[in-house]
Amino acid sequence: MKLWGGRFTKETNQLVHNFNESLSFDQKFYKQDIQGSIAHVTMLAAVHILTDEERDLIIEGLNGICADIESGKLEFTREHEDIHSFVEAHLIERIGDTGKKLHTGRSRNDQVALDMKLYTRDEVQQINELLKELLEELHVIMKENLHTYMPGFTHLQKAQPVTLAHHVGAYFEMFKRDRSRLQDIYNRMNYSPIGSGALAGTTYPLDRELTASLLGFYGPTLNSMDSVSDRDYLIELLSALSTIMMHLSRFCEEIIIWNTNEYRFVEIDDSYSTGSSIMPQKKNPDIAELIRGKTGRVYGALVSMLTTMKGLPLAYNKDMQEDKEFTFDAIDTVKGCISLFTGMMKTMKFNKPVMEASAKNGFTNATDAADYLVNKGVPFRDAHGIVGQLVLFCIDKGIALDDMTLDEFKAISPVFEDDIYEAISMKTCVDKRMTLGAPGPDVMEKVIAFNEEYLKEN
Ligand code: ARG
User: Among 109, 128, 340, 329, which residue's Cα sits nearest to residue 234?
Assistant: First the structure.
């Protein structure tokens, strides 16, 4: 059944129907479409546009359709243009003429705006929960690794020693910001467009506040033309999803590096790795690579949405139907990636001795050796030069600073004493970094306590 056959004298060309239809993808929000219709007729009855009997009959019919879709009894057949036509046609088939009153004071333009909002609003909450599970896992890793030393890098060159807790803590902050972005989006988007009609409201005395509150919105939107053509919340969401993917992708990149034979900082669990069809020795980090790869796909959705919207005059234009497939795809992709990433982290082994040895062998304590000399009265620039000589000496011998004998230290500068070993131990180097946000275990404990509070409250 068509919702708009009256004005036409010819059948739609089949290719046009196929090109125009959206049922193949907007069926994804059948539940929200029905939920919105139930709220709409509840409001219509409250303002006496429908009788209570008509309302009840329509709601019963809609609930029946929902149940039959869920049980598989009712299939989405291709002759319907979209989910809205599909539901309305089946309603009329089931309850007769009363069903024809469902669409009173409503257009598919405000209806689809509502459905998409209801759908994405749920998804925002689900993604927020998945991020929380990830944060809980990172929190566990942080608590267990306050004293797991590893090199911190700049330019992917070993720089100064940090701890695994500190490194993972950086991602904790990123995902925390991601959650707060989702929260912001939720708060901004949570206003109801229904009752805006096609673009200019309706002549029926609809109670938009009531429909909005029945659907859990903070209130109704305030401009009907904007309401039917606003897709800002999708752009914001896709942007937030892109940022989540960017964070996951950076972490994956590090895990891929850490998992190499050369680094061996971590071992990805067998259950999260795959093999090669030809090289029997291989165990590949495919999951991390795929997450990194899928990042491009989510960015693509954001750019598509921005581009689709950029030339659209007010109000609704059919171009907007294009908002759905890539938004759905981006949402499903991000949800899958967060879940898999969390599982991979949960099962991954950290090779702690290798991490610590790598920090030592990479001269990450060179700054601390220079600071040691400064504390003994050597000007920093001279200390920098002296430690440079130590490093050259060690590179030549293939050893770490800690492996030098005191005589070797003294031969380069007589200022060195026996306490140099303690001063450049990984433990001292990390313990001394005690400004808030640094890897020192005392301040890290504080941060972990903040995080604990955060996880309880959010
Ligand atoms: N399938 C359409 C969409 O997704 C629903 C709105 C159709 N409105 C219209 N005037 N043709 O945007």
Answer: 329
